[in-house]
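Q: What changes when DGJ is included in the input?
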Amino acid sequence: MMSFHLRIAGSALLLSLIAPRAAAAEGMPRVEWRDGRMMLRVDGKPFLILAAQLHNSSAWPARLPAAWAEAEAMAANTIEAPVYWEQFEPARGRYDTTNVDALVAKARASGKRLILLWFGTWKNGQNHYAPTWVRADPIAFPRMIDVRGEPIDVLSPHAPSNLDADRTAFVALMRHLRTTDGDRHTVIAVQVENEPGAIGAIRDHGAAAEAAFADAVPADLVARLGRKPGRWRDVFGPDAEEAFGAWATARYIERVAAAGKAANPLPVYVNTWLRYKDKKYPGIDYPSGGAVWTMLDLWKAAAPSVDFIGTDIYTDDAGEYRKVLDQYARADNPSWVSETGFDAKTAPFLFYVLQRGGVGFSVFGIDADPVTPATEAATAAHRANFLMLDPIRALVAQAAFDRRLYAAVEEPGRAKQMLSLSDGWAAQLSFGPPPWGDTPAILANSPSQSGRAMVIRLGTDDWLVSGIDTRVEFLRTAADGRHGQLLRVEEGEMRDGVWHATRWLNGDETDYGLNFGPVPKLLRVRTGSY
Ligand code: DGJ
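A: The predicted holo structure follows.
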């Protein structure tokens, strides 16, 4: 009897020790895939990344308080900040966690999540964040060699010593995060390297690279791409050198990422210096070997441990923005704006990501120095999005994953747009600050072009609607001869997944559509027919 009790007590003790660990492991940030869509889960809940990224040299304890205050002013739920290899490993095998610990502490104190950016072998297609002991010793850590036979400012992806040094440091970082944050999940993802690839050469011309380029394309790559076997030029034609560079870069990063994830299974992504805006020369216009859209299939084949690939989009041209998002939103890759310009004009484009069921949006360089009217306008525009979406981030992420989220963005010459919803409904969107009374039949863009809106289907005839500078009118499109009507429009908020109405809207507030100005608000709409 005694031993029975002891066993119970013993197993209860064991359970109490294991349970929090199991819960912590259960809540580990992770990606989930279904039907060609990806969702991030944090602490067991769907998570939409609404991020502010610090300037490159702001992740130092001395600069952090000021930079962080600006990120907080934007109401981001996630801060993105670099971990510099040169600072993290100032001497070989000696790690300095001061900066990363300061970031984690700051994030916890302010209730934010963190995405860490590993500035290792690559930063903007160069090697400037590799430690001095690496960059000062090109014999031990070989550089890429350009077409003239000259070494360039990029570490060779064909040198095992480079890979080994970077991988060892990255694993040390991931292990440290596991020890210090494994049960807290402050860090929700890690960007491995930054805009990888080479500026200054299409591919490496060092001896090892030359031999590999003369050889056949690896059999597993041709098989994955469904191409005929052959040498690089036979298989990839005019893109052979870039494809070779992309394969070498992606394989290297695959090994770094896989080792890091084995130490700490956090979601890992790669960001991309894009081939867009008519740029076409690899190694000059953009780093050769990066995950540009023409190399995406190859990257997916070469780097399966990289969970997703992000887009660093620096344009306020809506068409260009959409084009890039369409290139990257695929059944094997989610829409993810890993960087975008700190500008009021880019704020509506977050809704393109929502439209594509994406996982998030990050504004780069938000710690403005000096603050100007333009940076204040940028903060206000992105803050409006984040204030709208963060309180309902789990619901939005789940709806995007389930394809129940519809969104649209004002574009030049497209101040009115029709959004096709499910269940025999559409939404007519009129962008610009909503006027009193009827919408003009022909609507011109407002000067700010700040309109954006989303509709989430909660259930049959049950919708959540929000937007900025947009009028939303529900139109019944079902061909059954019945008329559509709004049965109830409630303004309110969603707290922990439960709707709380603060008032019902009717009369002038609904007769000319549902009106959204510059201050975000949430409406729950019940539609019906008669
Ligand atoms: C893209 C890089 O990834 C960032 O670190 C930063 O250098 C920006 N460009 C600057 O525009």
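Observations recorded in class: The mean pLDDT is 95.
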